[in-house]
Write a structure and sequence with these properties.
Keywords: Membrane, Transmembrane, Transmembrane helix. The protein has ten helices and no strands. By secondary structure, it is mainly α. The longest helix has 31 residues. It starts with a helix and ends with a helix. The structure holds protoporphyrin IX containing FE.
Length: 204
Amino acid sequence: MPTHQKWFEGWRLFALLSLTLLGLSLWIAGMRGFEVEDVRMVIRFTARTSLLLFCLAFAAAALALLWPNAWTRWLRRNRRYLGVSFAASHAIHAVAILAFAVMDPIGYAAATSIASYIFGGIGYAFIIALTATSFDRTAAAVGARAWRWLHLAGGYYLLFQFMVSFGKRIPDMPLYALFLIPLLAVFALRMIAMALRAQVPLRA
Ligand code: HEM
């Protein structure tokens, strides 16, 4: 494999994506000198980069099954690294949330609720559990069955969390409905792939 391509595979891909996200987040935060509005922009930016990385990782296997080609094979091969990059993106989301809370406690209280702590907290618990079990050794330690259930439950929970977090902003900003399109597409792709897999043993 040519050297430049190796940067787009495995842990190097993770390093490339997470360092790029970190750099862009710092750049956005520094745009007007680390004002509250800049920090809020980082929260929104990382919510969107997380959406993209999450959708790619969670749809990878279904896409590779439905349209086998070089790109979908790359996606499936690298879904773990895209998933861990999603976690890095959400770690920046968390740091920016903390900065927002410290810099503007009144604005922060107005932007959050008990529900955002409960649902967001469960979301972060899943992100930590999914990331912790995304290494060969830890994945082997939990066992294939538990790993599958954890990653399935975590994935669908996060899909739901994205739907709610973007969806609740639609009444004020109708264009936010556009963010639901990739989420619904991922769900549909997974359902179609599941139905196809269930049919294959019957055909054989
Ligand atoms: C305790 C955990 C969390 C807290 C306290 C929190 C807090 C926030 C806050 C304050 C904002 C609004 C920023 C602003 O209006 O300036 C926001 C936006 C958002 N968050 Fe989080 N969040 C949490 C976890 C999560 C998780 C787990 C997800 C997704 C899996 C998520 C997805 C989003 C999305 C989609 C937005 C909207 C971004 C936009 O406007 O484009 N959050 N969050």
